[in-house]
């Protein structure tokens, strides 16, 4: 007579039974159990429902030996905690990324990496095989992190075009240059001739490209005064930069800020200086975040599809994990100028 342990093993649901319940092949069930990312969301739900109904329990130890997978991906943000939890752009990006990964077995972990010590912690996790892939956000300058992680064999993707592109590391970005150019040309068409910009950080391609778009829009236009103040995408810096611009040219009549937060700071400085918006000074931001719809007046802003960027970033990462040798092209998403009361 078989013992109780053998009887339990005999009653344990099999892959074949799960496949029959789900109406799919045994191989499809095996791919789901082994964490394959090349299974449709519909099929994944069917198999998971069958597993839940039958009480199937995969042998996780054997699975790990076969797949060498952890089902964990790391989202690394090269900013301080204060910036991460107050920056609308980053929040939207994380939402899109999480939504896309929710259709897979992959779990998302978040880490900040704004210091050398934090960089080392990220690299240790990758070297020790604790994550299946890494998505990097908000890189500054020639950050060595993507290069180091790729050299360690990790699937790596980046949001935002790196200052120095790295072979084999694909990225997702918005068309920052076209968006900034459209915003500045709009101000010019409104009859503004003393036009300023508050730039983003010049060690990030988003900041570099938005300044380039501003300059391209005004290139060759006679009778235009161009003013530039440096910013860091934050609201306090936008307010400080706006005060500097007013001191430089009290007659300026338009400003393009490279983020909605900086535009909101500019509105505060203009109000304090007694300048009306848009009658005296027209203001345009960039992002079309919730900030743009809640300022007074509401901001004209360049919309970038932030959540879609997050989803595309997740898709690139899934492809990189599934097929590490595949060449992946960058994904550049279009922008759109949305006109509101500030301009």
TrEMBL record:
Domain called HTH lacI-type: residue spans? 13-67
List the InterPro entries hit by this protein, alphabetically: Cro/C1-type_HTH (IPR001387), HTH_LacI (IPR000843), LacI/GalR-like_sensor (IPR046335), Lambda_DNA-bd_dom_sf (IPR010982), Peripla_BP_I (IPR028082)
Alphabetically, the GO molecular function entries are: DNA-binding transcription factor activity; transcription cis-regulatory region binding
Give the HTH cro/C1-type domain ranges.
14-57
UniProt xrefs under Pfam families: LacI (PF00356), Peripla_BP_3 (PF13377)
Protease as UniProt keyword: no
- Keyword Transcription included in the entry's annotation: yes
Give UniProt keywords alphabetically: DNA-binding, Transcription, Transcription regulation
**CDD domains to which the protein is assigned, alphabetical:** HTH_LacI, PBP1_LacI_sugar_binding-like
PANTHER family, A to Z: HTH-TYPE TRANSCRIPTIONAL REGULATOR GALS, LACI-RELATED TRANSCRIPTIONAL REPRESSOR
The protein's name in its UniProt record? DNA-binding transcriptional regulator, LacI/PurR family
Origin species, per record, is Amycolatopsis arida
